[in-house]
Amino acid sequence: MRQLFYNQAIAEALAEEMRRDPCVTLWGIDIGPYGGANAATKGLFEEFGADRVIDMPVSELGYVGLGVGAAATGIRPVVELQFSDWITLASEMIINQAAKMRYMFGGVLEMPLVIRAPIGGYLSAGAQHSNSFESIFAFVPGIKVVTPSTPYDAKGLLKSAIRDNNTILFFEHKKLYGMKGEVPQEEYTIPLGEAAIRRKGEHATIVTYAYMVSKCMAAAERLAQEGISVEVIDLRTVDPLDEEKILESVKKTGHLVVVQETWRQCSISSEISALVAEKALDYLDAPILRVTAKDVPVPFSPVLESYVLPDEKDIITAVQIVAGRVPVI
Amino acid sequence: MNIPQEKLVMMYQRMLKIRYFEDKVKDLFASGEMPGFVHLYLGQEAVAVGVCTALNDNDYITSTHRGHGHIIAKGGEMRCMMAELYGKATGYNKGKGGSMHIAWPKLGILGANGIVSAGIPIATGAGMSIKVRRTNQVAVCFFGDGASNEGTFHESLNIASAFNLPVVYICENNLYAVGTRQSDVRKIEDIADRAIGYGMPGLVVDGNDVVAVYEAAKEAVGRARAGEGPTLIECKTYRWRTHFEGEPDTYRPPEEVDHWLKREPIAPYRSILIQQGVLSTEGANQVEKEVLAELDEAVEFARISPLPAPETAMEDLWA
Rounded to whole angstroms, how far apart are CA atoms B74 and A78? Predict the structure, then answer.
């Protein structure tokens, strides 16, 4: 099958949706002739012109706010933030406006707004260019949060996000832009809210998403060599959460490790742990373990960053512990 | 005045609607019949009415926490507003919004807003949407002197100007942001002066003169429709009441309040209409009578309307 890079898959999803629906309009910083800081809008300015691929000034609060007003009045804006870290500048327009407007107005309008933003560390980019803020937005009712881990998913999920009539945060991991994967020529979409089982297993369940999927898959491979069969669930969308697949898997394996790149406290991993504790506690043969970043800002120096962010070894150790293969220290 | 007669009468009628509606809300709120908080528009009627009379039904507005006047001026029905203020199922927004969150897109009303200045980028986005869809609509953004000090103001006006968006920014300068006198926290006298920094026209208008507001708005709306970009209009006005109902007035000199009460916008306008033969005295009285009857009906409608079923709290989050 045809292979595309993750950023190419995103550009292709955008192009296809823009051809299908003249209301789909993009804006952000450097997305025009420059092609986007991560080349995820490459070629779109040339095809659709300056009226639909709009370069904005450095005004995150302003241009995300424009997205809210535009989505409420009949177009489908797809707004790119150059780094998701800067979403804090725009969070008023997302949390108090986009997420609430339909509800507090009694359903009289729709909010077909997509905000694309690169997340993640492992690049020595320092504390203000390495964040993953999905947990903050999953906390807020009225927002869907998408975290694709492959080029195939990035394309299929983005097309669904653009067609959805609600506010969507679409978090792309910076380490994945250069990942190549199979993407068919034919039209397809992936529904929001459906996790993917990346690897079937019997002894333990790993629930994860975004860039950590590849680390978990590598860990599962190593663990298989030790005779531990691991099921890896890629959430694909952290909100809505595919509760059914998580619970089904845990009921089968009796062991759960939740793996996420970002901070631990009040996070997606907290939510999944709570879900399983509430609905499948009797099926667990060991306490749930979480593999996450340590709760400090992501430091710059590679040796410090590696210490703070989770790696394959942390995942392997956690699975070994829940599966009872090594004593808990 | 080169203004069609029906528009002149409509301006009188809508200013009266706002005046009597707000006066009634003041009493109903004080009596404890109405939950929550209310911020009244009394004294500023000429701004909303002058501006909205220059608009078409399908033009957009964004409003503020002090939004009742904008919604009535844009054609909102008092009965649906009153029911919303009572938290009833028959309100514009099924009781989910309340005083600070009334929206009705069918009339181009994109919402009152509880966050000061948040309507500024939203109106600007409506302007971008108009440009992308190539319609000849206009978006008008109402906001206060306080909001003009927020970052949204700067970012939005710069973008609107850079892209020639069809947006008219109406700053209602009523001299106070909650209890802070604006001259204590802003160096310049006229907020309209800031327009020059964005490369757009900025003008100061007497916000208590409905005809002056209408004429300024009409020109700005015309420019916006013609693709000539945004305008900032500062309307100097005053709110008669404190920031919200129930707040003690400890921060405004009584002589200042008196001065502005004497400058109220409706009675002088009524005199002009009668002097110029637009309305007879009886005709003006009749307009007033009809407004009061409609208001009584609105209160009655709100009172007898059903409360929302509690479980409807779980509806309307997702499209």
Answer: 30
Smallest CA–CA separation between B288 and chain A, in Å? 31
- Per residue in B4-48, pLDDT (tens digit) is 999 999 999 999 999 999 999 999 999 999 999 999 999 999 999
Virtual torsion, Cα B81, B83, B85, B86, nearest 10 deg: 170
SS3 A108: coil
Find residues 81-140 of chain B whose CB sits inside 8 Å of chain A.
91-97, 101-106, 110-111, 113-115, 118, 120-133, 139
pLDDT at B17: 98
Taking CB atoms and an 8 Å limit, are B130 and A73 in contact across chains?
Answer: yes
Give the Cβ contact number of residue B37 at 10 Å: 16
Chain A residues in contact with B120 (beta carbon < 8 A): 65
pLDDT in tens, A143-179: 999 999 999 999 999 999 999 999 999 999 999 999 9
Alpha helix stretches (DSSP H) within chain A: 6-20, 44-48, 60-71, 87-91, 99-104, 134-138, 151-163, 212-225, 243-253, 268-279, 302-308, 312-322
Distance CA B81, CA B59 (A): 20
Nearest to B25 by CA among B308, B298, B307: B298
Model pTM above 0.90: yes
Q: Which residue is closest to B155 within chain A, CA to CA?
A: A62
CA B173 to chain centre: 12
Distance separating alpha carbons of residues A130 and A308, to the nearest angstrom: 12
Record the tokens describing residue A38, joined without a space. Answer: 């991560």
How high is the pLDDT of residue A325?
Answer: 80
For residue B80, the one-letter residue type is C
CA distance between the termini of chain B: 47
Nearest beta carbon to residue A69 from set B121, B151, B158: B121
Comparing CB atoms, the residue among A52, A67, A110 nearest residue B319 is A110
| Phi, psi for B227 (deg, rounded to 5) | 80, 20
Q: Is A102 on the interface with B (CB under 8 A)?
A: yes
As separate numbers, helices (DSSP H) first and strands (DSSP E) second, chain A gives 12, 14
> Any residues with CB less than 8 A from the CB of B253 and at least 6 apart, and which?
none
Instruction: Go through A55-68 and write b for each residue having 16 or more CB atoms within 10 A of its CB, e for each that does not.
Output: bbeebbbbbbbbbb
Contact state of B122 with A65 under an 8 Å Cβ cutoff: yes
Q: Determine the number of helices (DSSP H) and then strands (DSSP E) in chain B.
A: 11, 7
Separation in Å, CA A53 to CA A33, A44, A47, B310 = 9, 7, 9, 44
Distance from C-alpha of A296 to C-alpha of B44, rounded to nearest angstrom: 50
Q: DSSP for A244-278? A: HHHHHHHHHHS-EEEE-SS--TTSHHHHHHHHHHH
